[in-house]
Specification:
Chain lengths: 101, 101
Amino acid sequence: MIEEENLEMLSDFYRTMGDLTRLRILDLLRRERMCVYKIAMELNMTQSAISHQLQYLRQMDFVRTEKIGKQVFYELADDHIEKMILLGYEHIKEAHNDPKN
Amino acid sequence: MIEEENLEMLSDFYRTMGDLTRLRILDLLRRERMCVYKIAMELNMTQSAISHQLQYLRQMDFVRTEKIGKQVFYELADDHIEKMILLGYEHIKEAHNDPKN
DNA sequence: TGAATATATGAACAAACGATCATATATAAG
DNA sequence: CTTATATATGATCGTTTGTTCATATATTCA
């Protein structure tokens, strides 16, 4: 049994990855660090929508930033993030091949 | 880069764990299989609220059921679920000790 | 069969969420 | 200094989500 406080942090953590736009952003950043407008271009979404989600991801410590001139580059905050994405990915692929257990 | 279709499945998967009530239920079921009213008791929530979330978890293949008499016992659908919970748990514990990378 | 118990489910409602729009801030370029 | 570019942010709005309430279904027991 996981302590209540940690369960709350855990659900916050998973909820952050439980949105397609945010997951798309994180998946992009696995490839390379990227500035805001480039992310928006790649995902074909408005700068504002992306910027809002990036603030969310930053508050949740999923990404970190480096400002260079006018641009702000975003990158994954640490290796765990990519690891969690890939583990979930492995899971759904297995689950799909192997419907029950 | 993960294919769009799989990213969608992945965000659905994480969104399922991104709710405190559902995560509490899953964490309970790690311990033992349990019938609905017992889950409701343990979590101090109404039978209806629990039942709705259990249907959700069932549709997402997080749990499976066995009906015995009047009772319906729920258990984790497979080992991956517990693994994913524990991995997330490890992650947040590390992240907390080790704020930046 | 009728009452009691366990679970499921549909409708309703409030709260949370995500995108958009308008605009603010900051830096660079002319 | 003014304009253009990149990003951030607050307000708004429609949608989704989670709980509640009322009720339906199913099974056991008297």
